[in-house]
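Please decode residue identities from the backbone states below.
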């Protein structure tokens, strides 16, 4: 049984998480925001995706954070191979100064 009594919190603690930090190149932040926004709907429709939420820093408009929650690592792999991701990332990498993707597993069940 989960230590999280709230069903929503328990669900967010069950799966494969990927934390992504992106810093856009100067002059490219709005284009990066548009690309990330375009990923929300098709990504949330993927079978192996539980949650996909991009954020933008209020103190550094070039800085973005994306919280991704997948059913399992296979869900992340499927997302990485999806057409919408492949198309978006091709445009994205040209507009960013840095992009770091770090996977995580919950350590509290």
């Amino acid at each position: 049984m989960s230590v999280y009594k709230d069903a929503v919190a328990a669900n967010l603690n069950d799966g494969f998480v990927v934390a992504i930090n992106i810093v856009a190149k100067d002059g490219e932040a709005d284009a990066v925001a548009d690309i990330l926004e375009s990923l929300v709907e098709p990504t949330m429709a993927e079978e192996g995706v539980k949650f996909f939420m991009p954020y933008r820093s209020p103190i550094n408009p070039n800085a973005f954070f994306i919280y991704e929650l997948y059913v399992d690592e296979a869900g992340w792999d499927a997302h990485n191979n999806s057409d919408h991701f492949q198309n978006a990332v091709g445009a994205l990498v040209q507009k960013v100064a840095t992009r770091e993707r770090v996977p995580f597993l919950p350590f509290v069940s």
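Observation: Strands lie at 16-24, 49-56, 63-70, 96-104.
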